[in-house]
Amino acid sequence: MADVLPRRRGRAPGSPLSWWRRQSLRFRLTAVAATVLAFALALSASVFLSVLTTSLTNASDEAMTQRAQAVRVMADAGTVPRVLTSTEGTIIQVLDAGGRITHATPGADRLVPLLNAERRGGALASGEPAFSHDSSGPLRVIALRADRGQSVLAARPVRGLDQSVRVAGRVLLIGTPALTIVLAVASWLIIGRTLRPISSLREGATEITHTARSRRLPVPVSRDEVHALATTLNDMLGRLEEAERRQRALVSDAAHELRSPLASIRLQLEVALGHPAGADWIETAEGVLEDTLRLSRLAEDLLALARLDERGGTPARHDPVELESVVRRVAERYPSVRVTRCEPVLVEGDELDLGRVLTNLLDNAVRHAEATVEVRLTSDGTLTVTDDGPGIPEADMERVFNRFTRLDEGRGRDQGGAGLGLAIVRETVRAHGGSVHLEDAGPGLRAVVRLPAFRMG
């Protein structure tokens, strides 16, 4: 029973709506277009027939009225010929004041008027056409009043108008479905051609696998929405490929960095356990502790980068930070660091992350300095860390900001970091809307960090 109730809430598998949703986009667009076209053509045909009937009727009435007015002029002047001529099938009767027919067109009844006295009086009063019958069928009659009580009746058979409308209706009855079919076929072909680039995108997407991720989707030549979609998807694939490449490089480099201290710890313990009597356990413990601390620093750096990646280039907090306080507090931890200038400046961001930026810069500077390290902070948010060490080649000043990048002279274990410090600095500074670069201090190296000043309100 519990399985039946959810099914009742949804659409039945065989319902028309479910069937419609299972059809292809091309079929649905064609069906909708054909339905709209059929409705529009049917409505247009109906309007056309209505307009045609009105137009033919008005033209017939105008012709009858003109002929009746001409006869009325002759009746007023007493110059009506004995035999009236018929033009375009118009039937004319001239009646005297007593309602007797005095003149008529050939073929017209000379004894019985087209309208009796009552209907004739109503037609003369209203000026609207009336209907009558004779041997030829229904007639449309117009009555005009003449002098001396005379009246003129003009009539035309309705059968001719009905026949013209019926012929037009038959043509539309056959032509409208035929035109609908032609337009539906044309819509099917046009929609298919329009959707062909999307099919190419789908086929291209199925060919992109984990072994062929460098491939891209086909981009149509036309500058339309499909072109924009293909370009956007290719850009997304490029970003995904770059992210995967960076992830693989990160995993590979992290495994390499982890392997060295782990191998060192294992080797020291194996040697000590293999020769327990001659082992210096204090020295072994100090070596294992050093490698453990190195692993701890590496784990902290990897965690910091992972958090920066998760936040998508935004700081963890958006608080006002007194940068000069951060500079003085961090610089006090290093005896060889001298703060030459520290002007008050307020920036927006995370105080802990900004402190880590300065810590990483000072760690690098102190590690390579010959004697002194100078820190300088100006009121425009520019922070510089300068050492008097050997510096680095200009070609490597940008490369050292990449993850796990260390120059040849810094690869020894006694030199410290795993090549993540400057990468953390750049990612953090960019997350705070700033920039960082290295420049030659002659001698030594200078790291320049620029952060936007915080504006209240």
Cα Rg: 50 Å
How many β-strand stretches?
A: 12
By CATH, the architecture of one domain is named: 2-Layer Sandwich
Arithmetic mean of pLDDT:
83
String of helices and strands: HHHEEHEEEHHHEHEEHEEHEE
Number of helices: 10
In the predicted model, the low-confidence regions spanning at least 5 consecutive residues are 1-8, 409-415
Percent of residues in helices comes to 40-55%
What is the CATH H-level superfamily of one domain? Answer: Histidine kinase-like ATPase, C-terminal domain
Strand content: 5-15%
Shape descriptor reads: rod-shaped
Kindly provide the name of the CATH class of one domain. Alpha Beta
Alpha-carbon distance between the termini? 61 Å
CATH topology of one domain: Heat Shock Protein 90
Strand order of the largest sheet: 2-1-5-4-3
Largest sheet: 5 strands, antiparallel
Plain-language structure description:
This protein has ten helices and twelve strands. It is of the alpha+beta class and 457 residues long. Among the domains are: 226-310, Helix Hairpins (Orthogonal Bundle); 319-450, Histidine kinase-like ATPase, C-terminal domain (Heat Shock Protein 90). The strands form three sheets. The protein has a five-stranded antiparallel β-sheet. A five-stranded mixed β-sheet has the order 7-9-10-12-11, covered by helices on one side. Strands 6-8 form a two-stranded antiparallel sheet. Strand 11 and strand 12 (445-450) form a beta hairpin. Helix 3 (25-77) runs antiparallel to helix 5 (159-207), helix 6 (225-274) packs antiparallel against helix 7 and helix 7 runs parallel beside helix 10. The protein is rod-shaped. It starts with a helix and ends in a 7-residue tail after the last strand. 21% of the residues are buried. Residues 1-8 and 409-415 have low confidence and may be disordered. One of its GO terms (molecular function) is phosphorelay sensor kinase activity.
